Amino acid sequence: MIVDDLYVTYRVNLERKNSLKNALVRKARKEKVRYREVNALKGVSFEVPAGKCTGFIGANGAGKSTLMRAVAGILPPTKGQIEVRGKVSTLLALGVGFNSALTGRENVMIGGLAAGLSRAEVNEKFEEIADFADLGDFIDMPMRTYSSGMFSRLAFSVAVFMEPDILIIDEALSAGDAQFKQRAGKKMEELMNSAGTMLLVSHALSTIQELSDEVIWLHKGRLIKRGDPAEVCDAYLEFLKVGDEAIVMEDF
Ligand SMILES: Nc1ncnc2c1ncn2[C@@H]1O[C@H](COP(=O)(O)OP(=O)(O)OP(=O)(O)O)[C@@H](O)[C@H]1O
């Protein structure tokens, strides 16, 4: 997977009420809609070798989730390129893509079809997915009735059993109870051993160091450091102690 000079800019509408009536009034008065631009990623480049796990760290608002959404194809790049070979499966914090009005079973089917599997292939995997998520009868209830733990267990289960070529995991390990975390960790190890490529986002540096072959540190939309997990995590910890100025001086 290659990410080349990636920029993502969000446009945030600053109007308080974004109604049709307001839009017409503004048009009649020849007023412009006011936007504020947020440059969430500013020229990020890196490659992830197949079969390796890359961890992403950085302070709040660094652009980690934005990067994952872009790689998953949920968010179009404003500029730059993302080259992905194979099937990408995402496990974003909130189980993006699930429709909470539908049952767990229905969402598994939709998720599977979206990942490029046939209906028959999803049916074949269904039992395994449902068993691993351990939802009991809730699998046939609308997902809005799920606890957040149940929600993330199903999201995790769908993502890993789709046998993706690239698996994106964004803070997934913080969800669910201790027992599930253990099972999830085991399953991820299996996945990595079967040579899947992984992108992992977490604020838990111990998890990142344990699982990653390489770590990328993002700060305010830029790639600050990339390389050996222990080295990059140490540099980041040092930065957290020293504060913002040090890295601004050093890198820009
Ligand atoms: N939907 C959105 N609309 C506008 N701005 C956004 C949106 N999502 C994120 N941003 C902004 O983009 C920047 C990067 O956010 P992002 O969520 O990617 O960071 P992050 O590293 O994942 O942070 P955290 O560790 O807090 O999850 C932030 O300044 C954030 O305010």
UniProtKB/TrEMBL annotation:
Pfam families: ABC_tran. Signal peptide: none annotated. Transmembrane segments: none annotated. GO terms for molecular function: ABC-type transporter activity; ATP binding; ATP hydrolysis activity. GO terms for cellular component: membrane. CDD domains: ABC_KpsT_Wzt. InterPro entries: AAA+_ATPase (IPR003593), ABC_transporter-like_ATP-bd (IPR003439), ABC_transporter-like_CS (IPR017871), ABC_transpr_TagH-like (IPR015860), Bact_Polysacc_Export_ATP-bd (IPR050683), P-loop_NTPase (IPR027417). Keywords: ATP-binding, Nucleotide-binding, Transport. Residues 20-245 form the ABC transporter domain. Belongs to the ABC transporter superfamily. This is ABC transporter ATP-binding protein.
